[in-house]
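Give me the fold.
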Amino acid sequence: MKSFVALLRAVNVGGTGKIAMSDLKAICEAIGCRGVRTYIASGNVVFKSSRNEKQIKAAIEERLHAHFGKPVAVIVRTADEMAKVAAAIPFPDTPGNRVVAIFLDMPVPPDTLKTVTGCSPREEVRLGQREIFVRYDEGMAHSKLRIPIAKEGTARNMNTVAKLAAMAQE
């Protein structure tokens, strides 16, 4: 069995709806995941499974659709992939709560930077493999930054990424 991290998009912080982490844990256990643990109430779950990434994604999304009555996007990464994202932080001198990784299901399109608008001089965007890294020196609350492809993914700050990577390696 391999270790995975699943990241739900827009639950408990966005427009999809609310889910108790105990319910999320039960959903993952019901599809055969083992050692299921959640981290903070924003849709982060770590587990082991003999399934592959696509199978896990489909199974969790199916159960979440039944729970919410509407689609909920899920991004899945292996423990090794999450560790690589945590290590790849392109802004090492910026506090982890001021940097986010936006996780996508697909490789980051090469023209992504051309589509970015509203970037202030105190913000910076860098591209990863299936992640976009954003530095918000003054926080996200008042940012005018727009990254169109980001609506296809889900963001986590680097403190959360590091914690999930560590949990998945345990």
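Strands lie at 2-8, 34-38, 44-49, 74-78, 99-103, 123-127, 131-136, 154-157.
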